[in-house]
Amino acid sequence: MKQDKFLTGILIGIAVLVVLALVVFFLRKDGLQYGAEDTPEGVVRNYVIALHKGEYDRAYTYLANLPNKPAVEKFRQDIGNGSVNLAAAGIEILKTDISGETAYVSVAMVYGSSDPFSGGYSGNTTTALLVKQSDGWKIKEMPSPYWGYDWYQGQ
Description:
37% helix; 26% strand; Nuclear Transport Factor 2, Chain: A; 2 domains; elongated
């Protein structure tokens, strides 16, 4: 009789842990919140969040206003047709180096994650390039898969 109660207790404990894990997983994924946009790393974070949330018009506002900037239609098309594949990618922001009007944000690519900022396995470490413009820090270049291969290229 005591063994039955003990086994029942273990099974209930396992069930509670499974339910808690599922709740945390689903709340964390929907819990992506935008942050401050006054730092280069904040802009990179918000750009990635906007892409993962499907808020492409907002993501587009983080791009630098420089020659050969992709038109908003091309940006949306590249995101929508899979040229930019966000399905199982994320980033970890490592450090930022600012030199005058240019910022280099080191990011580690994370693959197989459940949200863009955690889980999975880390891939290569690369750099996002930002420039200071009149309306704040803007992205000039991001690592793949968050960037179209032909954005800002000469026509």
